Amino acid sequence: MAELVSIITPAFNAAKYIDKAIASVQQQTYPHWELIVTDDCSPDDTRQIVVGFAEQDRRVKLVAQTANQGPAMARNASLQKAQGRFIAFLDSDDWWLPRKLELQLDLMRCSGSALTYTQFRRVNQDGNNEGRLIRVPDRLTYQTLLGNTAIATSTAMVDRKQTGDFQMTKTYYDDFALWLKLLREGHVAKALHEDLMRYRVLRGSVSRSKVNSAAKVWSTYREIEGLGIASSSIHFSRYACNALLKYVRF
User: Fold this and answer.
1) Which of 21, 54, 81, 244 is most exposed, with minimal Cβ within 10 Å?
2) What structural domains and CATH numbers belong to the chain?
3) In the chain, which ranges are continuous DSSP H helix?
4) How far does Cα 147 stand from its chain's mean position?
């Protein structure tokens, strides 16, 4: 029997882009999925757009927040509704290529890994001008992930049969914190060396501020992982080098 994949999508002011994200899920060659979009009280038409898709496709489901709580809590709201063994993440402004779920599930089954991730390309805000292929290391442990930027949220898939149920931590890099938590428990993340996701780079996005991002990574080390200053400094230097290599050119 085919395993259900639950796709977790937080959305806030995503009306310009979320149709592309949802359509990319509907175009997957693997059909056994549910897409759970949590609208975080968007003032635009995000909620109405999701409702329109849900009325045509029962696999698309809307969770409507009653108060804006940020992406981590929106992801948790979707996770609470998720029925699948496998959890995939897709941000509302990104999209997948058609064989993403099929190929990644094959890797999950063959490798036995609890967490997998793929290669991807960045695109500009309009969805054009594809950048270079972002390559990823073959595997990541807790120690190697501390100094790496390899797991893009919209490429990640988790096997809940191995990890058990989980929730996101309400922090700036809630995705990074989750990957670290899973690997800290002894799991190893495995890469799929296929180009399967498009990451939209939004002009003026807070996450594009390198200084702010650096501060949040440091905060993750110190406040969530509980690392000392010396250990944090070593991992941060590796993280910064990997980030520079990743973003030095589009």
Assistant:
1) 244
2) 5-203 (3.90.550.10)
3) 18-26, 46-56, 71-81, 100-111, 142-145, 160-163, 174-184, 210-219, 229-247
4) 18
Burial of 2 (0-12, 13-18, 19+ CB in 10 A): exposed
pLDDT band at residue 12 under the 50/70/90 scheme: very high
Residue with tokens 């948790």: 76
Q: Residue 102, CB half-sphere, CA atoms under 13 Å: how many?
A: 9
Q: Which two tokens stand for residue 243?
A: 């980030």
Distance CA(210)–CA(216), nearest Å, equals 10
The CA angle 154-155-158, to the nearest 5 degrees, is 100
pLDDT (0 to 100) of residue 204: 59
What per-residue confidence (pLDDT) applies to 243? Answer: 82
Residue 113 in tokens = 């890994």
DSSP state letter for 250: -
